[in-house]
Automatic annotation (TrEMBL):
The keyword Hydrolase does not apply. The lineage of its organism: Bacteria, Pseudomonadati, Pseudomonadota, Alphaproteobacteria, Rhodobacterales. GO terms for molecular function: methyltransferase activity. It comes from Aliiroseovarius salicola. This is Methyltransferase. It is an enzyme of class 2 (transferase).
Amino acid sequence: MAERRTRGGRAARVQARTNPPPVYLPTLNRAVGPIDLLGPEGVEKIHNAAMTILETTGIEFRDPVALADWKKAGADVDGERVRIGRDMLMDLISTVPSTYTMHARNPERTVEVGGRHSIFANAYGAPFVYGLDGVRRPSTLQDAHNFFKMGQMSQALHVPGILPVEPQDVPVPQRHLELVHAALTLTDKPIKGSVLSEQAARDTVDMTRIVFGEEFVDNNVVVTSLLNCNTPLVWDETMLESLRIYAAANQPCLLSPFVLAGASTPSSPHGGVALLIAESLAGMAYSQIIRRGAPMVLGVAIMGVSMKTGAPMMGSPEPGLMNLLVGQMARFYQVPWRSCTMWTGSKSPDLQAGFDSANTMWPVLLGGCNYIVHACGFLEGALGVSYSKWVHDALQLENYHRFFSGLQEENIDALLADVDAIGPGGHFLGTDHTRENPLHMNPLQNNDSYEQWEAEGSKNADVVGREEAQRILENYVQPPMEDDIRGALDEFVAKKRAAYQPTAA
């Protein structure tokens, strides 16, 4: 008689069916697009406009070290204004790699950036959350932990990030320690780095060296950090200090003008793109003065401005067109590029939020974006992250991953045999091909009858999303970390936390 299996039983089988482990999606290798709106003359027009801005108007580098570096490199430095000749600019950015590998703590989660590769990264920096109860409130460290956990459990989110929300309950001098520690221990996916200060950037690099090993970090990318230019035409000291730390460590940064089309840039897609290209390339060029060959990413964060209120406006056509142009220019310069998506001015995960999010994602992916930030959760013009919308967005990323993976190989002869066998008036529900190739299904989209939906509580998308977020958190499994590495990381954070005690007012 065969030995009876006693472990698990029916309860375990039910658990496996209702809470299956994530099946992680790899780096998206786009088989659809990119769309090129500009012919060669149009690309040259925007390139010349960007070079003219750099040569004639110039960009302010509000940092004495950067000014000294530029002067030594041969740029025209007048006070804080730096004018960069196009030959110098093109020579400097020529050593930026067109692709790089971003390593995760778990090698199975490692991703590729650049070329036809695209990755999705978490929301970043919101001071508010719309909680599991749907109520808006200031964000906390526990919220950041929760979003790291949800990012770890997401099948399509490649980078859980570093700052999914700003934890208002942690003193600013210690904030980066708590966030980097949590990102490294609660996830085993790639992470972002802190740019709060020069010391925060240095601590981030030191913490990755504890986890990955010094030699590995010196020779590989393990973190990518987000640096914002103050559009128009200003790189400030805090951002430049962080850039020097990461570039010297051979770790890339997303060098990102923050564009409010019609306010901080011209509303014209051509003019706005020329300006932001000049700003990002200037930061990228400076990184190469620090370390030739350091990987960097041409970054943009594009939104419009409401002509009624002056508030940021997401999902409008012009930023979408600008993203298409940025993608084409990034391919001209042969550098990776970053953009933002899935954000909205709505205050709930409603119809506007859905429209805005879709209208921001499609142009970015069709434009061939490599590093896609804010892909989950944003509401309120990027001031709030919703648990409910985060879940819905994460599932939509699976849809985008499937669509942009393109067509699969098909055995047309076998399909014709099915057509012949079934004949007129039949159906294909029972064929081997249908069973083996089901259409992608979003489990939270309700396609039941009205009566069944009503019988199950008449739940709207917000309620369904919050319930799913709770389920994900209840089923989160923390990825393992070696005891000696965890101990060294904990010790580093404890010492730094004590050193960075906020001073009394």
